[in-house]
UniProtKB/TrEMBL annotation, chains A, B:
Classification via PROSITE patterns: HTH_LACI_2
Boundaries of every HTH lacI-type domain copy: 10-64
The UniProt record lists the keyword Glycoprotein: no
SMART domains to which the protein is assigned, alphabetical: HTH_LACI
Taxonomy, superkingdom: Bacteria
Record keyword Repressor present: yes
MF annotations from Gene Ontology: DNA binding
Protein's UniProt name: LacI family DNA-binding transcriptional regulator
Record's keyword terms, sorted: DNA-binding, Repressor, Transcription, Transcription regulation
Length: 356, 356
DNA sequence: CTGAAAGCGCTTACAG
DNA sequence: CTGAAAGCGCTTACAG
């Protein structure tokens, strides 16, 4: 009965003694690429097994100055896009033998304490995947010599690496789609107004519509939050000039907007109103919603993110890099279809106008 | 231009030199409760600020034998219940000054490599919040002297701490509700058949129905996966003896089942079929689904989990503890309402039969 | 309250 | 290929 007492944890010295070799030999056995004879190695491995030895990653970190830990800051996970990203990150980092220290659940912009924690753990890299964290934080990290990648956002100054999709082109594509669908009046429900994703998507939408001589766009703000999106939708649908076509800045909000449209205003989708979203995530795919939505290729975005990090960690060079991926406008049933421009690809319907 | 070069990181010795005190004094300044004069403390703090010093948590861990890291193993995040839990855990652990090392994105039962990682980082505690991990793993951890809490599941032998809700009572309550609603035929769509949640919910359901002389229950398996739940629903709805009332083992599956019912079989909910779920999470609340569902009090469950962990860490005693919370059957529109037993509480409709 | 010193469990030149 | 030794950046008795 040794239950209840925390085992001391067996050390390399104990293994060394048991195997009749030096502590160095034990260390080399567990260091890939270290020079060690197979015979010694076998002896060590055998003893390690008997004693239940595992190298202490903490001690290793201290001396190598590498923690093999990547911090991921993700303020909220309600939007299924983020859990998706997180799962993919878990996979990708594990494949590189890195671990994921998650910072989530604080809902503020007060990121200084977070930063402090990151620094104390000497993380090897940082992924900022939340739209509501300060740009300062990221630059602070970068200037501390820790590789940082912004996921799905950028900062004004582009001193920090980022991975995004062509949000402006996405907004524009959506405008083209809605115009091609024969809609006459347009609206936009914004996300966080000072986020780069919202800014770019909105700008592209405005430009796209302007290209067809349309300059009036009904506008409400949902701040990427479900309740706020509902409120925005109520405002939008109460307008005397309720638009025929609505671009909602992400799917998380679009779902809420559709529910308000159907169950509070009795609107039929897409007969009474066409709705297009962004992210192509979770509920967007479900039959109840079937949202026509710009996709963001999560898997490739995550790959790029980890790529940049690994590059910077191994090279020691921190040079800002910006990887921009392409999305597709996946066509489902939440918006009227245009007569042309819809093609089949990978079993999905995609909007690809000829002139693009 | 020092960009590109990883800064060495300033140490306590450097701060000591700068402040003209011993390295011990610096350490004491950053150790809450250590005996240090306010004067020395101020000097140290000033120097630390100038130099940008932060204690190295890795070095601290090595000597204190406390990493202040809790590992959370959560195989998949698709079911919004888990991101919810994760966010809450992030908050609760941060409040205790602990950090969250997340293991996710591997979709198998092969948890041995995970275990190895956990051990190498000398985590202070482990939360197992995924239904697909082996019971072995958890006992292995426990026997290694690391506090482990199973979240939302139990094992046969109850040597490992757990936090759950009364799943059997929940299943029973659902049976009572459906019987009270006047349904005559019943079905069940199971989650992972060997998971404790599924076993208990199913058992309670069966017992509850048996109490009313009902022993025939149409049965399909959805394994807590969306595509499998869809397949199960198709089987269920194709039966000549399609049940009037269906209990789906969690909301994640219930959403999929509702979509299949409505859009593939043209069934009206709840007119043609009543559906009840479990978890009371995310989409359950949305108007498109409005699922009548047993709630699991995530916040309180998380509090209990962190509580148990903190107790065991500080006391050094690892004694299995089982906390069981109560849920409520939250009544919405996915199932026919009984004439009596529905009460209002906290602005929600709850099913609470008198004789319970 | 303060400092000198030992030591946490490793990695890695260095010399053989 | 191997071992003795230094050292990573801290905490914490110990003595004053």
């Amino acid at each position: 009965m040794d239950g209840g007492v925390k085992k001391a944890g067996v050390t390399s010295s104990q293994v060394a003694e048991h195997a009749g070799v030096s502590q160095s030999a034990v260390s080399r056995t567990f260091t890939p690429g270290a020079s060690i004879s197979s015979k010694t190695r076998q002896k060590v491995l055998a003893s390690a097994k008997v004693l239940g030895y595992r190298p202490n990653a903490i001690a290793r970190s201290l001396i190598t100055n590498r923690s093999r830990i990547i911090a991921v800051v993700m303020a909220y996970l309600e939007n299924l896009f983020y859990p998706d990203v997180l799962e993919e990150l878990g996979r990708a980092l594990a494949a590189e033998n890195y671990h994921l220290l998650l910072f989530t659940g604080f809902m503020d912009r007060d990121s200084d304490p977070v930063f402090d924690q990151l620094m104390q753990y000497r993380v090897d890299g940082i992924i900022l995947a939340s739209t509501s964290l300060s740009s300062e934080l990221s630059e602070e990290c970068a200037s501390a010599g820790i590789p940082v990648v912004l996921f799905n956002r950028t900062t004004e100054r582009d001193a920090v690496s980022s991975v995004t999709t062509r949000n402006r082109e996405g907004g524009k594509r959506i405008a083209e789609f809605l115009v091609a669908g024969g809609h006459k009046s347009f609206g936009y429900i914004a996300g966080l107004e000072n986020s780069s994703t919202n800014r770019d998507r909105h700008q592209g939408y405005v430009e796209g519509l302007a290209g067809h001589g349309i300059t009036e766009i009904a506008y409400e703000v949902g701040n990427y939050s479900r309740p706020e999106a509902e409120a925005a939708a109520r405002m939008m649908f109460s307008r005397p000039d309720r638009p025929e076509a609505l671009f909602v800045a992400n799917d998380h909000m679009a779902v809420a907007v559709m529910d308000v449209a159907r169950y509070e205003f009795g609107l039929k989708i897409p007969e009474d109103i066409s709705i297009v979203g962004y992210d192509d995530v979770g509920p967007a795919v479900w039959r109840s919603y079937g949202i026509t939505s710009m996709s963001q290729p999560v898997k490739r975005m995550v790959e790029s993110t980890v790529d940049i990090l690994m590059d910077q960690i191994t090279s020691g060079e921190i040079e800002a890099e910006h990887r921009i991926h392409n999305g597709e406008l996946v066509v489902r049933s939440s918006a009227r279809h245009p007569e042309t421009g819809i093609v089949e690809a990978d079993g999905r319907k995609i909007f690809r106008p000829k002139d693009v």
